[in-house]
Every structure is written in structure tokens, then in C-alpha cells.
């Protein structure tokens, strides 16, 4: 969403040049969402709308708590409520996951984006959309393994959580983290967040959640939004959180080195044609051909209807 | 011998044969112009090094918006072209023979080839290849035309469509390179599509069977 922040850029979409790296500190930030502490109050959603000056349309109740029913170009984060009967304990569990951009270390959206600088990854790990460069093609939607970006039907630009890059750039935490009343959303360096997660996981394990763990999927190089899950072995029960997310092989094939080969093939064909002409020379009609044609035409004129045109 | 002697008669008889009517020519050039614009706008979004081509269309967002509409024009225009030309492009035994002698074809030694009808096997392959690819491009293009068709199919299908669309586009551009070069190489061909007429000699050399039919006053388009 935001224009360039005073943050250093690590990667830029559709760009062949490497951003300057001399100032890079290597310090990565992360948001840690402790699903086991979430009470589903949606303060994070409100804070997100408020900070980013967004308004969601008034929706309809379809019998679930999710509101709105999906991420939209205005709602960059969404509490997804799942009811789950734990077969091991017989307990009913209410799993509430705050959905939104995961800020992948290897972002599929950035890989898919055809517009230079429309998607950037800062050195701190935040993946941000730079709207003024966005062309509205929705390739980022195809690239994302988490189904996060949404295209606005108003201005045809892609939107998603910025991890409050504008706040982070000036030393603040994201609005959602600030608003969360149970501190289920925490923000800090990625290392600190992992440590914090470890303590939470130890606690959860001592309370019988043997499979509690940190969701920081390696398939996308790790993420800068991480979840503490009570059931890390079954992430799908949290409203379809993918178990092993990675950039689709179709996207890799579409956006990979094949492109260079394809352009090479086009260039080869064009250059090849040029040299074919150089070597073989033009394929010209000879005077004999013309004479033969004239003879044939005369023959035809004698034997039947005349050809359409015949000039001497 | 390095020097070739060519004896020219004082007066050479010239014949002309009608090859394409005005509507076929207009139809062809609308298709050609649309294809060129589609290739340029498509390549602009295909590789970062070609993104500068979006400037031809007034920027990235405009390129993204125009490209699919150009596709609609192309398939409509090509559909008419297809109806016009398909019956002349049916494969026959001469085409198989022509394909076997592709070496003679590229050397330009046409006297070794069988006499051909209105189109040779290469032209027929370009015709059917383009027809197939345009259908594939249109179908996959609709899937990834996010402005009007977002959310109709799964993201997985979208990814597949995007990949197939790119591959088909590259194949189509390759075919058109062959088509354009053939027109440049075989002198006197472009005239057929710009003025509608070719010389009798051109027809004798490249499409003798067609010329014989024309000379007899048989059906033509």
C-alpha cells in the first residue's frame, strides 16, 4: 500500500538490478500470533482499519463469526473462526486464527509480479505493495501460497497487510499488535519472537498440548508473521492453514528461467531468419516462370473461360 | 563459375492472378495488427527487461487493461479469417511430400517439389497452429482476465492458465515469425496481401496446381 518507506529494500519485483546492500543490518522483524491466547475480539481488525484509514462494507450474517467473510481490499486482516472436536480428548476447541499476509522470506507474490517495484521486500523482512507501481494484473494473487492479496474493484490495485511498514519504519509496532488486549499478537525481532514462542510452546506442552509448536514454514523460507499453534501437526484445522506452503511449481515454471529460454527462442528465430536470407538469398520468380505462366494462361484462354486478369 | 549470365528477352509476357479479395485483405491486416499489439503488450508483462514496452500503451495499468480486449478483437477477426480459409488448408498427399522435402524447401529448390495448390504445407501448419493457439490463448486469457472473471475458478487453475497462456503465446509468436519471414523471403508474396494480386510467375513457381485451376477458371477465393 505504502509508498517507499525509509526502509532498505532487499528485493524488488520484476527488476534485474540488485538493490544497494551496504546499509543492511540483517535485523529481521516478525509478528508472533499466539493462537492459544486469542479471544476473538477483533480488536486487531478494528485497529488495522483505523490505522490504515480503511472502511469495510457492512456485511450480512451467515451464521459464522467471521466478519467480513473473507479478506478484502479493505480488510487486510481477518479473524477466522474454526470449531473443532478434538478426537483425542473429546473436547470442543474454538480455534481462532488471525489471517493476513505472512510476509514470506521467499514471497510468491513478488516472484509473480510483472511490474518493476510494485512489490518490495525490505531488509527487515516486510513484504510491501507499492501501489503507485501496481498495474492490477492480479499475478500476485496467483503467486501467493496463502491466498492473501485482494484486488480492489475500485482502483484495481492489490492490497494486503503491510505489517504496518509505515509504523515499523519509525520504530513502532503494528497497529494490530498494539490493540490486542491479551497480547496474543506480539512484535519484535524475529529472534526474540522465536524465543517468546519457545516459552509459550513449553507452557502449552505442559498443559497437554503435546503437538504445540511454532508455524514458521520452511517451504517459503520462513515467514515474518508466525503462529503459535496448539496443534502444529494439523495446521489445516485452523481455517485451512497450509501444512507445507510453497510457491506453486506452476508459478515457478511460469516465472523461472524458462522465460529467458523463451525469449532466446524468439531471438533465435528472428536472427535465424535473417541469416537464412543472407545464406540462401531471396526466393525470386524467374522470367521463365513468368513465361510459363503466360503460356498456361493463353492455353486456358483458348480452351475455356479466361482467367480473371491478364495483362501484357 | 563466379559470373552468372542471364539472358533477358526484350519483352516478357506478364500475367497476374487474383489471390485475395479486398475483404480478405482487410480481415488479414486487422488480424495482423491486433496480433502485433497483443505480442508487444504481452511481452511487456512477460519479462522485466521488456516492461518498457508498456510505454507504448500508456503505462503498465493501461497495458494490462488493453491486452485482453485486443485478444477479443483478435479472436473475432481470426474467426472470420478461419471461415474464409480453412477449406483451402486441408492436408493432402502433396503436403506430406512437401514436408518430407523440407530440406529442398529451405534451400529454395522448388522445382524438386510437387506442384502445390493454393497453400503449401508450411502455410497450412501456420494456419492450423495459429488457429489452435489463438483458441488456447483466448480460453486461458479469459481465466486470467481478473477484471471480469476473478474468482470464477480456483487459484490453482489460474496458475495453470497463466503458464499455458505464456507458453502458447511464445509458440504463436514463433509461428508468426516464420509466417512473416516466409513472406519476406518469397518475393512477390506480400503483394498478394497488400494489392490482392500476384504475378503468374509467382503462382507458377510456388502454387502451380492452384494456377492451373485459376487458368481453367475454376473456383477461387
UniProtKB/TrEMBL annotation, chain A:
Residues 288-298 have a biased composition (Acidic residues). This is Formate dehydrogenase iron-sulfur subunit. PANTHER family: FORMATE DEHYDROGENASE, NITRATE-INDUCIBLE, IRON-SULFUR SUBUNIT. It is found in: Cell membrane. Residues 1-21, 284-312 are annotated as: Disordered. It comes from Methylopila capsulata. [4Fe-4S] cluster 3 binds at residues 101, 104, 109, 144. GO terms for molecular function: 4 iron, 4 sulfur cluster binding; metal ion binding. InterPro entries: 4Fe4S_Fe-S-bd, 4Fe4S_Fe_S_CS, FDH_Electron_Transfer_Unit, Formate_DH_bsu_Proteobacteria, Formate_DH_C_sf, Formate_DH_Fe-S_su, Formate_DH_TM. SUPFAM superfamilies: 4Fe-4S ferredoxins (SSF54862), Iron-sulfur subunit of formate dehydrogenase N, transmembrane anchor (SSF81597). GO terms for cellular component: plasma membrane. Its cofactor is [4Fe-4S] cluster.
From TrEMBL, chain B:
Its main location: membrane. GO terms for biological process: anaerobic respiration; formate oxidation; respiratory electron transport chain. Gene3D superfamilies: Transmembrane di-heme cytochromes, Chain C. It is found in: Cell membrane. One of its GO terms (cellular component) is plasma membrane. Keywords: Cell membrane, Electron transport, Heme, Iron, Membrane, Metal-binding, Transmembrane, Transmembrane helix, Transport. One of its GO terms (molecular function) is formate dehydrogenase (NAD+) activity. Its cofactor is heme. Residues 19-195 form the Cytochrome b561 bacterial/Ni-hydrogenase domain. The chain crosses the membrane at residues 26-46, 66-86, 125-145, 165-186. InterPro entries: Cyt_b561_bac/Ni-Hgenase, Di-haem_cyt_TM, FDH_cytochrome_b556_subunit, Formate_DH_gsu. It is a multi-pass membrane protein. PANTHER family: FORMATE DEHYDROGENASE, NITRATE-INDUCIBLE, CYTOCHROME B556 FDN SUBUNIT, FORMATE DEHYDROGENASE, NITRATE-INDUCIBLE, CYTOCHROME B556(FDN) SUBUNIT. Belongs to the formate dehydrogenase gamma subunit family. NCBIfam families: formate-DH-gamm. This is Formate dehydrogenase subunit gamma. It comes from Methylopila capsulata.
Amino acid at each position: 500500500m505504502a509508498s517507499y518507506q525509509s526502509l532498505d529494500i532487499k528485493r524488488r519485483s520484476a527488476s534485474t538490478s540488485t538493490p544497494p546492500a551496504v546499509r543492511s543490518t540483517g535485523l529481521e522483524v516478525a509478528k508472533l500470533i499466539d493462537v492459544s491466547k486469542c479471544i476473538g475480539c477483533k480488536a486487531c481488525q478494528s485497529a488495522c482499519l483505523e490505522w490504515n484509514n480503511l472502511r469495510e462494507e457492512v456485511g450480512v450474517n451467515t451464521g459464522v463469526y467471521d466478519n467480513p467473510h473473507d479478506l478484502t481490499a479493505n480488510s487486510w486482516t481477518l479473524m477466522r473462526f474454526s470449531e473443532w472436536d478434538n478426537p483425542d480428548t473429546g473436547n470442543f476447541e474454538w480455534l481462532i486464527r488471525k489471517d493476513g499476509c505472512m510476509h514470506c522470506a521467499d514471497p510468491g507474490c513478488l516472484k509473480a509480479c510483472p511490474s518493476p517495484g510494485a512489490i518490495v521486500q525490505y531488509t527487515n523482512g516486510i513484504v510491501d505493495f507499492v501501489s503507485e507501481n501496481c498495474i492490477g494484473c492480479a499475478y500476485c494473487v496467483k503467486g501467493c501460497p496463502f491466498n492473501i492479496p485482494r484486488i480492489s474493484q475500485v482502483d484495481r490495485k492489490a492490497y494486503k497487510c503491510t505489517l504496518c511498514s509505515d509504523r515499523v519504519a519509525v520504530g513502532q509496532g503494528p497497529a494490530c499488535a498494539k490493540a490486542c488486549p491479551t497480547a496474543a499478537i506480539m512484535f519484535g525481532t524475529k529472534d526474540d519472537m522465536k524465543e517468546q514462542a519457545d516459552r509459550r510452546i513449553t507452557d502449552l506442552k505442559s498443559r497437554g498440548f503435546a503437538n504445540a509448536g511454532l508455524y514458521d514454514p520452511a517451504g517459503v523460507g520462513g515467514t515474518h508473521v508466525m503462529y503459535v499453534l496448539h496443534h502444529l501437526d494439523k495446521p489445516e484445522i485452523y481455517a485451512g492453514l497450509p501444512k507445507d506452503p510453497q510457491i506453486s511449481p506452476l508459478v515457478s515454471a511460469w516465472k523461472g528461467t524458462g522465460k529467458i529460454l523463451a525469449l532466446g527462442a524468439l531471438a533465435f528465430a528472428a536472427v535465424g531468419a535473417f541469416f537464412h536470407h543472407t545464406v540462401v538469398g531471396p526466393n525470386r520468380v524467374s522470367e521463365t516462370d513468368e513465361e510459363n505462366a503466360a503460356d498456361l494462361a493463353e492455353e486456358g484462354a483458348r480452351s475455356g473461360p479466361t482467367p480473371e486478369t491478364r495483362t501484357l | 563459375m563466379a559470373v552468372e549470365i542471364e539472358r533477358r528477352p526484350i519483352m516478357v509476357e506478364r500475367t497476374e492472378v487474383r489471390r485475395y479479395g479486398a475483404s480478405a485483405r482487410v480481415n488479414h491486416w486487422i488480424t495482423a495488427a491486433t496480433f502485433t499489439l497483443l505480442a508487444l503488450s504481452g511481452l511487456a508483462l512477460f519479462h522485466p527487461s521488456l516492461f518498457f514496452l508498456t510505454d507504448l500503451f500508456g503505462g503498465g495499468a493501461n497495458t494490462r487493461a488493453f491486452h485482453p480486449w485486443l485478444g477479443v478483437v483478435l479472436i473475432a477477426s481470426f474467426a472470420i479469417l478461419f471461415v474464409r480459409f480453412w477449406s483451402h488448408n486441408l492436408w493432402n498427399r502433396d503436403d506430406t511430400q512437401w514436408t518430407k522435402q523440407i530440406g529442398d524447401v529451405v534451400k529454395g529448390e522448388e522445382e524438386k517439389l510437387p506442384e502445390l495448390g493454393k497453400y503449401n504445407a508450411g502455410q497450412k501448419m501456420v494456419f492450423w497452429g495459429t488457429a489452435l493457439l489463438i483458441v488456447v490463448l483466448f480460453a486461458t486469457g479469459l481465466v486470467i482476465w481478473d477484471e471480469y472473471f476473478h474468482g470464477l475458478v480456483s487459484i490453482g487453475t489460474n496458475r495453470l492458465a497463466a503458464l499455458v497462456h505464456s507458453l502458447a503465446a511464445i509458440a504463436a509468436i514463433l509461428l508468426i515469425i516464420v509466417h512473416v519471414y516466409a513472406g519476406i523471403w518469397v518475393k512477390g508474396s506480400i503483394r498478394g496481401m497488400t494489392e490482392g494480386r500476384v504475378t503468374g510467375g509467382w503462382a507458377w513457381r510456388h502454387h502451380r496446381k492452384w494456377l492451373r485451376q485459376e487458368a481453367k477458371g475454376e473456383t477461387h477465393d
